[in-house]
Amino acid sequence: MIAIFGAGAIGCWVGGKLAAGGADVTLIGRARVMDELAGGLRVTELGGVEVTATPKLATEPAAAAAAELVLVTVKSAQTAAAGAALAAVLPETAVVVSLQNGVRNVEVLRAALPGRRVLAAMVPFNVVRRDGAYHRASGGALRIDDDPAAAPLLAACRAAGIPIEPRLDMAAVQWAKLVMNLNNAINALSGQPLASELAERAFRRCLAAAQREALELLGRAGQDIAKLTAVPPRWMPRLLDVPDRVFRVLARRVVAIDPHARSSMWDDLEARRPTEIDYLQGEVVTLAERLGRPAPVNRALVRLVREAEAGGKRDFTAAQLRVALGL
C-alpha cells in the first residue's frame, strides 16, 4: 500500500495518478479535502488527458500503519510534525519519500524516523485545483534518489504514466529546483498567473536578480546544481533577460505552463496560510549569512512575502517590485 501523507494539490495529483494506474493508494489529508474527494478524484494533464480514481481516504496518521511506501507532501514547516506522527505508526520496513520543496526535509524526516529508509525526491511541475479536478499545469519528470528502495515507486509511476528519473545527485537536483522556485515569491507578489507574470521582462528581471544572487552563493559554497531543463541553470538569468518576443519563443522549448497556473505561494497567500518563503528565499539568505555575503534581493523578497502574509501588498506591478527590490 502507498500512503500519501499531507494530500494537498501535489499529493492528490500524484496519488490520483498512481491509483488510476492500479496502485493501492490511501490519501491522508485535511477533512475538508478528503470530504471533497468522497465521490472520486479527477486528475488532468497539461495535454488534456483526464483520469478518475477512487483511492482510500483518511484524516489520521494511523491510516499509514500498513503502508510499505509513504510519500510525504506536507509543507516544509510541517515536516517535523509529520515525521513524529509517522514515527508512531510506521513499521521499520516502510520506505518514506519526501516529495517536498526545499533542501532540508529529508534530514528532518530521517531524524524523526530512525531505522526507516528515507529518500529524497523532487516534483518539478505545478498542480492547481480547477473545475473540481487536480490539474498538472506545467511539465517535467519526477526525480528520486537512485536507490534500490525506490523500486516500488518507480514501478508504480511507470504503470501510471508518471515520468520519473532516478538520480545520484539529488542534492544538486533539490538546489536546482529551489533556484527555479525563487519565482514562487515573485509570482505571489505579482497577483498574476505564472504565464502572464513571466511574459513581462521587468518581472523576469526580478527573478533573474534573485537567481544570480543564489547561483553566486552556491558557487562559493561549492554546491553543484543539476540541469533540469533544456537550459543549464547558470544560463537561466540570461534567458530571463531577453526581450519578450524572444522569450516567448525560447520559453516554450524550456517548459510548458498552463495559462491558469499560479505558484503554490500564491495559493498559500490566497488561503491565508503561512508560505514556504523561509524554505526558498530564506535558504538563500541563510547560505549568504553562513558565507558572510550579502543577499539583498532574496532578503527583500522574504520581507515582502512576510508582509503579504500579514495582509500587506500582493499586487505589485513589475516596476513597483523592481523598486521594492532595489533594482
Structural description of this entry:
With 327 residues, the chain is of the alpha/beta class. The chain folds into 2 domains: 2-168, NAD(P)-binding Rossmann-like Domain (Rossmann fold); 173-324, N-(1-d-carboxylethyl)-l-norvaline Dehydrogenase, domain 2, CATH 1.10.1040. The protein is built from 15 helices and 12 strands. It has helices at 9-20, 31-36, 79-87, 105-112, 151-160, 170-181, 183-190, 194-198, 201-221, 236-240, 244-254, 264-270, 281-291, 296-309, 318-324; strands at 2-5, 25-28, 41-44, 50-53, 56-58, 69-72, 95-98, 117-122, 127-130, 133-136, 142-145, 164-167. The strands form 2 sheets. The chain has an 8-stranded mixed beta sheet, with helices on both faces. Strands 4-3-10-9 form a 4-stranded mixed beta sheet, with helices on one face. Helix 4 links the parallel strand 7 and strand 8. The protein is globular. It starts with a strand and ends with a helix. The mean pLDDT is 94.
Q: What is the element layout, followed by pairings?
A:
Elements: E1 2-5, H1 9-20, E2 25-28, H2 31-36, E3 41-44, E4 50-53, E5 56-58, E6 69-72, H3 79-87, E7 95-98, H4 105-112, E8 117-122, E9 127-130, E10 133-136, E11 142-145, H5 151-160, E12 164-167, H6 170-181, H7 183-190, H8 194-198, H9 201-221, H10 236-240, H11 244-254, H12 264-270, H13 281-291, H14 296-309, H15 318-324
Parallel strand pairs: 1-2, 1-6, 2-5, 3-10, 6-7, 7-8, 11-12
Antiparallel strand pairs: 3-4, 8-11, 9-10
Helix pairs in contact: 1-5, 3-4, 7-12, 7-14, 9-13, 9-15, 13-14
